[in-house]
Give the backbone structure.
Amino acid sequence: MSTLVVHPASRGLEGSVPVPSDKSIGHRALIFAALADGTSRIAGFSRGEDNVSTANCFRALGVGIEDVSKTELKVTGAGLFGLRAPDHDLDCGNSGTTMRLLSGILCAQQFASRLVGDASLSGRPMMRIVGPLRARGGHLDGKPHPKKAGDVTAPLDIRALVNGEFLTELELDSQVASAQVKSAVLLSGLYAHGATYFREPTLSRDHTERMMLAMGVPLQTSGPVVSLDPSGWDGKLAPLDIEVPGDVSAAAFLLVAAQIIPGSKVSIRDVGVNPTRTGLLEISRDMGAGLRVEPQGDRAGEPLANLHAWHEPLRPGRIGGELVPRAIDEIPIACVLAARASGATVITDAEELRVKESDRLATMAGVLRAFGVECEETPDGMRIVGTDRPLTPADVESRGDHRIAMSAAVLALAASGPSKIRDADCIATSFPRFVGTLRALGARVDVE
Ligand code: S3P
């Protein structure tokens, strides 16, 4: 397992760099291409491990996925009813999106399947999808959750629908704003005999809805409410020809690096700026960070922009409410901004972070303290007292969480000596070229 040795930034970060393509959109492009009638082209596909897990699962389900080049895939869709029984367990690796979205499709099939994941994924709560999918007739079972009574974890066993069984209509008022739950429910809705109606507390990322609409699915949206009525629909998904935009969740680490290191000037090209994903841009702007968003039109039905970031003195922020789902993966790196602000930043309404790849509130609080930043964990957030003094060099563990590893690496740039980030291989989950990209901007990072 590799360790990153991050040296303090002796000058500002500078340059114009790309980021990997959007992981969330990449998963969905593969899923919908696999279910389409015809051949799809997916350009700019990320080789991050999570996206590769989704591709491998569909290969095992009989879908033709061909590597046309390093970043382009040709997918021969099986149609909604053309998947075949896998002859081994479907390994979702570290990817919650793969496991939860595939469950929505697999519970509608006339064959059985088993979804497995790595140690982190095998500890995550699955009743949030198992419950709704069971309610419409799916046969899903997991292992009892060791800490939460009534919840289940992977492996997920999905039994076949038999003897004329089918999925029924579903009306769901979700307690959490979760795109994974919403997408699993909508995907199962493609197969259901009856309508799907889903409401969430605030709108979570809407890539599934955008892609379904583009492929001709009879979907209606109104803020945090979405419905799908397949009656009268021919059940055919039009193939895709898309280029996936850059991942704003990957860009976030580079933006914040530039925003906390004096003298920096960093540009990131062709980043997806879907408003359900841009909470961090608003947080950083509210905190006085240097940021310019230069719109570049649309790509794959998603707004695109070049992002420019630089250092400015930071003031503390308040992060809570509807902003949280729109920055759900960016809270760890927002903590890094807070660590460099002139006062106390308060994060609330972020209890979902406790069930991500790690308990991100606890892991991030540990990382901040290791660097000498004062912080206090609360059940649903954190209070972080920022400082502009050089931070204490630290030796920290990622706990196998890619976003914690990258947040710690960015924080280390502001320390007074070299820091170690252990268990850093997990960065390949979402940003395989993270170290190379930081080096291209002038940072000194060694890999041990
Ligand atoms: C994702 C949704 C979010 C996010 C995850 C990707 C998706 O999870 O944290 O990284 O692609 O749908 P939740 O739906 O659990 O909030």
About this structure: The radius of gyration is 21 Å.
